[in-house]
Write a structure and sequence with these properties.
The protein is of the alpha/beta class. It contains 12 helices and 39 strands. The strands form 6 sheets. The protein has a 20-stranded parallel β-sheet that branches. Strands 3-7-11-15-19-23-25 form a 7-stranded parallel β-sheet, with no helix packed on it. The protein is rod-shaped.
Length: 581
């Protein structure tokens, strides 16, 4: 595909050629005014006055390639001003290749036929506020060096901005696009705003490049649209999107807070550059080690996620609170969530580290806020990232709210067959329930704390195996020191001597095991260790050893036959949770 911006500049005949006679290096390329030998800018005063006097509101004008000053454009529009409305009214307009060196103000102008500004250059402000285009309007290859204002404009037919270059902010607020609007290969160096605009039949928006923010807040799309946008940020706050809308994005931080999704909507990170987009305003992020061309979602608050599919999105900064039907959200491809702080920390004399898992941004905000208030330390030192909140505002959510978020997103990941991700969110749910002082009873919190300590809620095999090893070590030590008797009890046969010919009664009795006595060092022997180890291994697989034990040993074996198989089962469950798909 060849970009139109690489084509040679058009030539209009007959050209004005002003300056050629004076030996200047460049002649004027403006088209001659009909009936004259020069363009409008270079007509002498009498000829210009005569030409302007011949015009009437609604007249067709052709001033391709003509250089316009602010004064010349104002005189032209004043000549075409409709006495009924007091606003300029133009017929077919051709300003292709024209240059506007001063502010170009077309405010409240009505274009009754097609308007063409192909390749035009606006050196300063270009203002088309409350303009009405009743037919095709073309700004292809136009260059806006100053701010561009199209606020309140009405485009009744197709509007083409293909290849246009906006060097400053562009404003299309409260505009109405009744026909398709096209921005293929348009470049916005700064922000472009379509706030509260209405798109009635626009099937494509882009591909376009924006070095700032593409603002579509409160905009309405009445028909499915495919947006192909490479931008720093994309704001879709309270935007109404029609069913089957597709968002294909690069680089952008996307805010969907309050967006109204009327049907299935897909948002995907585009892996490769859009054709013919240089991305000069964005690619420096790759050179400076930034996040690359990936797309980050910053908020889904207030969104009905039942119709939303996210593909290859970074959700590490996303705020989910306020969204509904999160359990039906689809997350395909590589989905990135925030991670707990890395490294070790101390809680008193004990070194600890946060378990590696996927976390929500809201948990980061809650933990950072809790650390600030409880421990009077800076959140960055604690490792959890702070979130946006007013300086005098209290936290509006707590562990109970976060547990519900984790529960819904866990269901969404389970439905997407992402079992490891769902396991992480189950961990987060249990963490929030453990910290919830209002919705969880003290007994539930105590049980969750024990569950967390011995196995990481059944999700940390290493912790369960460590607990199993610790329990087995304690069992072996207790058996060696107190559980095994000094000697194995020997059966004793007792009876009473009777007269010859009388029945003899003998009683076989096993004496009770004798508790070990003497120094502890005498009890730590290879033989006693081997017996204790055999008892412990049998307990792990829920078997009785059949060994004679003291009272302490009997109760120890009973306890180990209950605890150790449970810990082994938790370790197996944790492994299964990590490898299951």
């Amino acid at each position: 595909m060849t970009s139109a911006r690489n084509e040679p500049p058009p030539v209009w005949q007959p050209e004005c050629g002003h300056g050629t006679a004076q030996g200047l290096p460049a002649s004027c390329r403006g088209i001659r005014v009909p009936g004259y030998t020069a363009c409008l800018a270079h007509l002498d005063v009498a000829d210009r006055d005569a030409y302007l006097a011949s015009l009437a509101p609604g007249a067709d004008i052709d001033h391709r390639g003509t250089p316009f000053t602010e004064e010349l454009l104002t005189r032209l529009l004043d000549t075409l001003r409709d006495p009924t409305t007091g606003h300029p009214r133009l017929g077919q307009v051709q300003f292709d290749g024209a240059s506007f060196t001063g502010p170009a103000r077309f405010d409240e102008t009505t274009f009754t036929r097609s308007a063409s500004f192909l390749g035009a250059t606006f050196t300063r402000t270009a203002s088309f506020e409350r303009v009405t285009f009743t037919s095709l309007v073309a700004f292809g290859q136009a260059t806006f060096d100053g701010p561009a204002w199209f606020d309140g404009a009405t485009f009744s037919a197709a509007a083409a901005f293909g290849g246009a270059s906006f060097r400053r902010n562009a404003h299309f607020r409260v505009a109405t696009f009744a026909g398709p609007v096209q921005f293929p290969y348009a470049t916005f160096s700064r922000d472009v705003a379509f706030t509260a605009s209405r798109f009635e039949t626009t099937p494509w928006l882009g591909p376009l490049e924006c070095g700032g923010t593409v603002i579509l807040n409160h905009a309405t799309f009445l028909a499915p649209v495919t947006m192909m946008i490479a931008a720093r940020e994309l704001s879709l706050r309270r935007t109404r999107l029609a069913p089957s809308t597709a968002l294909r994005l690069r680089y952008a931080k996307m805010d969907l807070a309050g967006a109204v999704l009327e049907g299935p909507i897909t948002a995907a990170a585009e892996p490769t550059r859009f054709p013919d987009l240089s991305e000069v305003h964005l690619s420096h992020r790759l050179r400076t080690g930034g996040p690359g061309a990936g797309v980050r979602v910053t908020s889904l608050s207030g969104v009905d996620a039942a119709h939303l599919t996210l593909t290859d999105m970074d959700l590490s900064e996303c705020r989910f609170i306020g969204a509904v039907h999160l359990d039906q959200l689809r997350m395909d491809g590589r989905t990135v969530f925030a991670r707990p702080p890395a490294g070790w920390r101390r809680q008193g004399p004990i070194p600890l580290r946060w378990s590696r898992r996927r976390t929500l941004a809201e948990e980061h905000h809650w933990r950072a806020d809790t650390a600030t208030h409880l421990f009077d330390m800076e959140p960055p030192a604690h490792g959890w990232q702070t979130g946006p909140r007013a300086p005098d505002a209290s936290r509006s959510y707590g562990p109970e709210t976060l547990a519900a978020l984790y529960r819904q997103l866990r269901k969404a990941l389970e439905d997407g067959k992402n079992e490891p991700g769902a396991a992480d969110f189950y961990y987060g749910e249990c963490e929030m329930r453990r910290h919830d002082l209002t919705g969880s009873s003290w007994a539930e919190r105590a049980l969750l704390t024990a569950y967390w300590a011995v196995s990481g809620y059944g999700l940390r095999a290493s912790r369960a195996l460590a607990a199993l090893a610790a329990a087995a070590t304690v069992t072996v030590a207790v058996m060696m020191l107190w559980g095994l008797p000094d000697q194995a009890p020997k059966p004793q046969i007792t009876g009473r001597q009777v007269a010859a010919g009388q029945p003899l009664t003998l009683i076989t009795d096993a004496p009770k095991p004798v508790n070990p006595a003497g120094p502890w060092a005498d009890r730590v022997t290879t033989e006693r260790f081997e017996k204790s180890l055999r008892i412990t291994i049998n307990s792990v697989i829920f078997r009785s050893s059949g060994q004679d034990l003291t009272t302490v040993g009997t109760y120890t074996e009973m306890s180990s036959r209950f605890v150790e198989p449970v810990l082994l089962g938790l370790a197996v469950l944790a492994v299964r949770g990590r490898v299951k798909r």
